[in-house]
């Protein structure tokens, strides 16, 4: 199944071929974690969904969303 997912991802241009690239099921896990973070789901909940026992493992699956960071940034005046 992982091979099939990888081939579709490569065909769609959303997965690069090469050593160390996310593909197959892990690509889907990364995507799920990132989508849940953007929806405001807590890391604890995401950790449970992914089956992780420690939050530091879950943080590796989440990616920063620049638009979300800009929205919560505070304006600094000098």
Parts with pLDDT < 50 across at least 5 consecutive residues: none
What average pLDDT do the residues reach? Answer: 76
How many helices? The count is: 5
- Determine the fraction of residues in helical runs and give it as a percent range: 55-70%
- Note the run of SSEs as H and E: HHHHH
What class, by secondary structure content? mainly alpha
Radius of gyration of CA atoms, rounded to a whole number: 15 Å
Q: What count of domains describes the coordinates?
A: 1
Counted beta strands: 0
Shape field: flat
* Binned strand content: under 5%
Give the termini distance in whole angstroms: 56 Å
Characteristics:
about 80 residues, mainly alpha, 5 helices, flat
